[in-house]
UniProtKB/TrEMBL annotation:
Residues making up the signal peptide according to the UniProt record: 1-27
Entry keyword set: Plasmid, Signal
Record bears the keyword Phosphoprotein: no
Organism this protein belongs to: Comamonas antarctica
Gene3D superfamilies to which the protein is assigned, alphabetical: Bordetella uptake gene, domain 1 (3.40.190.150), Periplasmic binding protein-like II (3.40.190.10)
The family this protein is said to belong to: Belongs to the UPF0065 (bug) family.
Stored InterPro entries: BUG (IPR005064), Bug_dom1 (IPR042100)
Source taxonomy: Bacteria, Pseudomonadati, Pseudomonadota, Betaproteobacteria, Burkholderiales
Pfam families assigned to the protein according to its UniProt record, in alphabetical order: TctC (PF03401)
Protein name: Tripartite tricarboxylate transporter substrate binding protein
Length: 325
């Protein structure tokens, strides 16, 4: 999994600014860009962390570029539907994919066949944000810590259910990692989206779920869910008081990709424009309010990390035994 770090050097940004200038005219015959609205395709349902982050970035980017940036939700097949749509889109700089780590680096390991190649079909632009995952329970559930959850599950084998956003999603795999590492028998109940899973845990239909910080922290704050820990190797600066679950440490990122073959001057322009947006105090505060932290990564660093991450998730999926045909 990719680590949260700032990889952009000030000198590189200065050089890129000089190369792009203040206008929108691009080199190598691309011509002026953008001259019409841009579409961000989100391959998940509205209301999830990826959708919320995409809309926050799109609103500010539209103002920066002088053209609307429209967010289009294309959920289905665990993110494969919207992802494959972007893979088949024209590489003209008017369609981008705003995706979650789970859809792009877990699905290739999970599915026997997927309708896109996560490397060959895309031009990585940058990571946008990272958001930790939290282990939460309904307040009426007796466990107040991970150890208490494990102890309860062992004395009630096969009776503790955990909700996920669907088969093969990150919160599903976190549950499978917990089962394997602690030797407990939890029953997986897949939902059609993270919001639906969290809502049923709030309602008491199921006792346990893993959820992204943006998706479940509002319920924790209001007392509708109890948080047992954060799936990370260190405390999250968003809520440093939450216990760390090092054995379940993952880094969940949200990133921007373009169809393969998108002209590099357009990729560079989008990268620079979004970097400027993410560096504003208003956007930093907005993302933190959503439960996410901004990330600055270059197109090159994002692309370089994807093959290793795909290999890492292949090992995790293989160990979990999860598979979707």
């Amino acid at each position: 999994m990719m680590h949260r770090r700032t990889v952009m050097a000030c000198a590189a940004v200065g050089a890129l600014c000089a190369a792009l200038g203040n206008g929108l005219a691009l080199a190598q015959g691309v011509g002026p860009w953008p001259v019409k609205p841009i579409t961000f395709v989100v391959p998940q349902s509205p209301g999830g962390a990826n959708d919320v982050i995409a809309r926050a970035v799109a609103q500010s980017l539209g103002s920066t570029l002088g053209q609307p940036v429209i967010v289009e939700n294309r959920p289905g097949a665990n993110g494969n539907l919207g992802t494959s749509q972007v893979a088949r889109s024209a590489a003209d700089g008017y369609t981008f994919l705003v995706t979650a780590q789970s859809a792009h680096t877990i699905n290739p390991a999970l599915y026997t066949r997927i309708p896109f190649d996560p490397i060959k079909d895309f031009t990585p632009v940058m990571q946008l944000a990272v958001a930790p995952y939290l282990l939460v329970v309904n307040p009426k559930f007796p466990a107040k810590t991970l150890d208490e959850l494990v102890a309860y599950a062992k004395t009630h084998p096969g009776q503790v259910e955990y909700a996920s956003a669907g088969n093969g999603t990150l919160n599903h795999l976190l549950g499978e990692m917990l089962k394997k590492q602690r030797g407990v028998n939890l029953l997986h109940v897949p939902y059609k989206g993270a919001a639906a899973a969290a809502t049923d845990v709030v309602a008491g239909q199921l006792p346990v779920t893993f959820g992204s910080f943006p998706g479940v922290m509002p319920f924790v704050t209001s007392g509708k869910l109890r948080v047992l820990g954060v799936a990370s190797d260190k405390p999250t600066p968003l809520a440093p008081e939450i216990p760390v679950l090092k054995e379940l440490a993952v880094t969940s990122w949200y990133g921007l990709l373009a169809p393969a073959g998108t002209p590099q001057p357009i990729v560079d322009k989008v990268y620079l424009s979004i970097t400027q947006v993410l560096n504003t105090p208003a956007m930093k505060e907005r993302l933190r309010a959503l439960g996410a932290e901004p990330v600055q990564s270059t197109p090159a660093s994002f692309a370089a990390g994807l093959p290793a991450e795909l290999a890492q998730w292949q090992k995790i999926v293989d160990a979990s035994g999860a598979r979707i045909d």
